[in-house]
C-alpha cells in the first residue's frame, strides 16, 4: 500500500493568504488612521486587532498541535479560545456602542474578520511548508 505524500500549499494559496492578511489589516489600519475618533478609541481598536491576530494564530497552532499529537495543555487551549472570543466580543461591543455610521462599523468588522481568517491561513501555510520540508516530500508551493 502506498503511503500518502505530504504536499504543501500551492504558491497561489500562499500568495492569496498573504494578500488577504495584508489587505484586511491594512484597510482596517488605514480606516483607523483616517477616523475622526479620539486617540484612545483608536488605540482600543488597534489593540483589538493585534490581540485578535495573536489569538487567531495561537488557536490555530494549538488546534494543529493537538491534531498532530503534540501535547497542548487544557489551560492554554482554553485561553486561546477565550482570547479569540474576547477579541471578537470586544470588537462587537465597541462597534455597537461607537458613534460611527453603520457602513463604518461594517468596514471595521469586515477588515477584522478578513485579517483573522487570513492570519490563520498564513499560519497554516507556514506550518505546512515546514512539514513538507521536514519530510522531504514534494516541493512546497508547487502547482499541486
From TrEMBL:
Keywords: Membrane, Transmembrane, Transmembrane helix. Signal peptide: none annotated. It holds the Pfam family YiaAB. Coiled coil: none annotated. GO terms for biological process: DNA damage response. The chain crosses the membrane at residues 12-31, 43-63, 75-100, 106-123. GO terms for cellular component: plasma membrane. Residues 13-65, 76-128 form the YiaAB two helix domain. This is YiaAB two helix domain-containing protein. It comes from Duganella vulcania.
Amino acid at each position: 500500500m502506498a503511503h500518502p505524500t505530504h504536499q504543501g500549499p500551492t504558491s497561489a494559496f500562499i500568495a492569496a493568504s498573504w494578500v488577504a492578511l495584508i489587505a484586511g489589516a491594512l484597510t482596517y489600519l488605514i480606516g483607523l488612521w483616517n477616523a475622526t475618533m479620539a486617540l484612545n478609541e483608536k488605540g482600543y481598536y488597534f489593540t483589538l486587532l493585534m490581540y485578535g491576530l495573536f489569538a487567531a494564530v495561537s488557536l490555530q497552532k494549538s488546534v494543529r498541535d493537538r491534531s498532530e499529537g503534540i501535547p497542548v495543555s487544557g489551560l492554554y487551549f482554553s485561553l486561546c479560545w477565550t482570547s479569540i472570543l474576547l477579541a471578537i466580543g470586544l470588537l462587537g461591543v465597541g462597534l455597537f456602542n461607537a458613534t460611527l455610521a453603520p457602513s463604518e462599523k461594517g468596514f471595521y468588522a469586515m477588515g477584522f474578520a478578513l485579517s483573522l481568517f487570513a492570519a490563520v491561513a498564513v499560519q497554516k501555510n507556514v506550518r505546512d511548508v515546514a512539514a513538507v520540508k521536514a519530510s522531504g516530500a514534494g516541493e512546497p508551493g508547487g502547482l499541486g
